[in-house]
Design brief:
Elements (H helix, E strand, L loop, with lengths): L8 E6 L6 H14 L4 E5 L13 H12 L5 E3 L2 H4 L6 H12 L5 E6 H5 L10 H4 L1 E5 L13 H10 L5 E2 L2 E2 L5 E4 L8 H10 L2 H4 L6 H9 L9
Parallel strand pairs: 1-2, 1-4, 2-3, 4-5, 5-8
Antiparallel strand pairs: 6-7
The structure holds adenosine-5'-triphosphate.
Length: 227
C-alpha cells in the first residue's frame, strides 16, 4: 500500500444520546496525538448493532451542532443519521471512501469499550480496508490483549502500530493505534439517568457543553426515560 502525503482525517461515530464532554475530549485528544486535520462526527440513525437511541434524531443532531460549533476542524456528517435504513460502519466507510478518494488516511476513533466489542460489528475485518482504528483509554475497559475477545486480540497483534506511516507519508488504512487521553469517567447512559431523576441544581454539574444542557432543558429531553 503506497503512502499518502495528505493529512489524516478523523472519524467519530456514535449515538451521541446526548453528546457529552468526553466525546469532545476524545476528538481533541485524537487530533492532537495523531496529527489529524480535523474530525468528522458521524451520528448513527438506527445503528445496526445496538438498540435504537431513545432521542429523536433531530435533537441528537441539534445537540451535536451546538457542541461542535466553536471548533472549525469539527464537521458534522448527517447522512447516516438521516438514513431510513439501519447503518453499519463498514458501509459508512465505503461511502466516505467514494466521496474522499482512495488516498486520504482515515482514522476511525473509538473508546476502549468499542475495541472490546469490535468483533460484533458487521464485517468488522473489512473496516481495515478503508480505515485505521485509533483507540483511547476509557475507564473500566483496559486495552490489554489478554482481556480482549480472541479474534480482536489477534487482529491487534498483527495491526498495532505506533504511527500511521513514516517520514514520507501515512498509510491510508489498515493499522490499529492507541493514543493517550486523560481518562474521563463519563457516559451518556449515566447522563441520561441523572437527567431523568435530577433536580435543576444537580443538572448544572453534568459533564455536558452548556449549550447542550440548555437544549435538553428547553425541550424537556430525557425526562421519564429509562437510561
Ligand atoms: P452510551 O452510554 O449511551 O453507550 P457513550 O457515552 O458510550 O453512550 P457513544 O455515542 O456510544 O457514547 O460513544 C461514541 C464514541 O465515544 C465511542 O467510540 C465511545 O467508546 C466513545 N466514548 C464515549 N465516552 C467515552 C469516554 N468517557 N472515554 C473515552 N471514549 C468514550
Amino acid at each position: 500500500m503506497s503512502l499518502s502525503v495528505q493529512a489524516p482525517l478523523g472519524l467519530l461515530g456514535g449515538t451521541f444520546d446526548p453528546v457529552h464532554n468526553a466525546h469532545i475530549a476524545l476528538a481533541h485528544a485524537a487530533m492532537r496525538e495523531l496529527g489529524l486535520s480535523g474530525v468528522r462526527w458521524i451520528p448513527s440513525g438506527q445503528p445496526g448493532h445496538r438498540n435504537a437511541p431513545a432521542t429523536p434524531v433531530e435533537h441528537r443532531l441539534a445537540m451535536l451542532r451546538l457542541a461542535i460549533a466553536g471548533e472549525p476542524r469539527f464537521t458534522l456528517d448527517e447522512a447516516d443519521a438521516l438514513s431510513a435504513m439501519p447503518t453499519y460502519t463498514v458501509n459508512t466507510l465505503a461511502r466516505l471512501r467514494a466521496e474522499l478518494g482512495p488516498d486520504v488516511p482515515l482514522v476511525f476513533i473509538i473508546g476502549a469499550d468499542q475495541l472490546a466489542a469490535l468483533d460484533t460489528w458487521r464485517d468488522w475485518r473489512r473496516l481495515f480496508d478503508s480505515t485505521h482504528i485509533a483507540v483511547a483509554e476509557r475507564p473500566g475497559y483496559p486495552v490489554e490483549r489478554e482481556r480482549l475477545p480472541a479474534p480482536v486480540a489477534a487482529e491487534l497483534a498483527t495491526r498495532e502500530a505506533a504511527t500511521l506511516g513514516n517520514g514520507s507519508g501515512n498509510a491510508p488504512a489498515g493499522r490499529i493505534l492507541r493514543f493517550a487521553m486523560a481518562p474521563l469517567d463519563v457516559s451518556a447512559t449515566a447522563i441520561r439517568s441523572a437527567l431523568a431523576s435530577g433536580t435543576s441544581s444537580t443538572l448544572s454539574g453534568l459533564p455536558l457543553p452548556p449549550p447542550v444542557l440548555s437544549h435538553i432543558q428547553s425541550h424537556a429531553l430525557y425526562r421519564n426515560t429509562t437510561p
